[in-house]
Amino acid sequence: MFQSYDVIVVGAGHAGCEAAVAAAKMGSKVLLATMNMQTIAQMSCNPAMGGVAKGQIVREIDAMGGYSGIVSDKSMIQFRMLNKSKGPAMWSPRTQNDRMLFHLVWREMLENTPNIDFWQDMVSELIVEKGKVCGIKTGMGLEIRGKAVVLTNGTFLNGIIHIGEKQFGGGRAGEKSSKGITEQLVSFGFESGRMKTGTPPRVDGRSLDYTKMEVQNGDDDVVGFSYTKTEKPKEQRCCWITYTNDKVHETLKTGFEKSPMFQGRIQGLGPRYCPSIEDKINRFADKDRHQIFVEPEGWNTVEIYVNGFSTSLPEDVQYKALTQIPGFELVKMFRPGYAIEYDYFPPMQLNLSLETKLIKNLFFAGQINGTTGYEEAASQGMMAGMNAHLAIKEQEPLILKRSEAYIGVLIDDLVNKGTDEPYRMFTSRAEFRILLRQDNADIRLTELSNKVGFAEQERVDRVQEKNKATAEIIQFIKEFSIEPTEIDAYLEQKGTTSLIHKMKLEKIVTRPQIDLLDLIENIPSVKAHLGKYEREFLEQAEICVKYDGYFDKEQEHVAKMEKLEHYKLKPDFDYAAIPSLSIEAKQKLAKMKPLSIGQASRISGVSPADISVLMVYLGR
């Protein structure tokens, strides 16, 4: 019935979809196996993509040729560039999305991607022969052979849903959990653990009083995620903000005795940076209110996502507390919030390629690795799919450095430091975030991806066009001088010092009060030279001019760090033979088997002193 596949992807969430696309576009014959084809790329939690650091990841996925950015742009109902008041390293794109349209666009794009087949069934077992994965077995008893397998099981592995004192098996509301995989992997020697995540209630938007809330509109300039010419919506839907209060908190406390989290029925740790509402009022007892973001689920639905109100308290307590939020007095609830507990596998059991150390050609991506968030999952799926293809072709894996991408930071953190709570990306996790901006992801990654056969040539052509235009704009800014008579009135209007004599445009552009796009619109001589360039190219040039000195310092730090990456370590290196290493370092290094001094330096428990000992031992 089935042919043999190059790559089998298990699970069709955000990680699975990107894994299938990556392997297929590189030339592998791919099978995407999912328990339900009607929930491909389901937005299980909030109907949004991007945000702080996450938006950078989506742009990196797009720059490499993945689909998440295009799908997000095609299904967006609102766009905002967060942190615009801060430096460009902090600018983070975010879209509010139509949940149903997001799924439909993803499915359509998958079906139109050559080399991808689909199969709807539960995968209950892996076929492993001589330490190498060779395929899957399904709940129907079918055996499907494959040269590589990517597991992207999300929250489905032995998933248990909690609402108050009620608990029942499930990988998502209304869907059954997945059995068999965890137990088999543990029998092979894998270590597993439990994690928890949650989701808020969904409510009827027709029952809300928006006059009691703050309106949150989208940006006038819709940038979007994709570097392609994907069409953006002409209109946007607004969101709203409201707040909890003491009455809400007191009502929620009445359910604490039935809380699965407080009563110990949930063993897994939840996300520290996205806690449930009961956890918020318990941990931050000094705060008398918390923000609630009221987010539409799409263009043509009244369903509302109550962001900030994730909870697993009894449904009657949830409802009563909701009615005490301003604007929610007459609320009608579609479904309650719930917590879900599921199996994951500590990611220190992986190589940086996301291939498991115990079984050859078996890759893990997404929540199975202990992460939380669509964006983190999608980026891992893309890298796992790419490296699965490269593995069966017996080519070197593509490993992104910490200085090249947030995706590199994410995977390096997971593999070298591990995580015992759901890992979420933040800009603060990246040492080189001035270099890893959302505006230059294509410059950083597209050609790199093209070399391994993923990013299309037209994407490379676009990057080259961008680089050429940016260089021309920068050259003009550095060489062009402007007369005081032409610009003084504008400078005074902007609250910055007027000119005494003719000055290079570069000196003016570097002033914090000056915006290049605004300058072009108001100064005729500048507009005459730069008015022909696209907004994207002008913004890129302006950032390069304003922050040139910072970039140089950051590159110096990168060079120092990369020196350590040149000192290679063999996987069978005998750390026990080095007496000066600490006992913890010996144990951690023997377990992790780092491939370079740089990787060894980032392993939790390995000190700078241990690294110095290693360097001396290697004969530096």
Please summarize what this structure is:
This protein is an alpha+beta fold. Helix content is 36%, strand content 18%.
Topology, please?
Elements: E1 5-10, H1 14-25, E2 30-34, E3 48-50, H2 54-64, H3 68-75, E4 76-82, E5 92-97, H4 99-111, E6 116-120, E7 123-129, E8 132-138, E9 143-151, E10 160-163, E11 166-169, H5 181-187, E12 193-199, E13 202-204, E14 214-216, E15 239-243, H6 246-253, H7 277-283, E16 291-296, E17 303-307, H8 315-322, E18 333-335, E19 338-344, E20 362-364, H9 374-392, H10 406-417, H11 441-451, H12 457-479, E21 481-482, H13 484-493, E22 503-504, H14 505-509, H15 516-522, H16 524-530, H17 535-546, H18 548-565, H19 583-592, H20 597-601, H21 608-617
Parallel strand pairs: 1-2, 1-9, 2-6, 9-20
Antiparallel strand pairs: 3-5, 4-5, 7-8, 8-9, 10-11, 10-19, 12-19, 13-17, 13-18, 14-15, 15-16, 16-17, 21-22
Helix pairs in contact: 1-9, 2-9, 2-11, 3-4, 6-8, 11-12, 12-17, 15-16
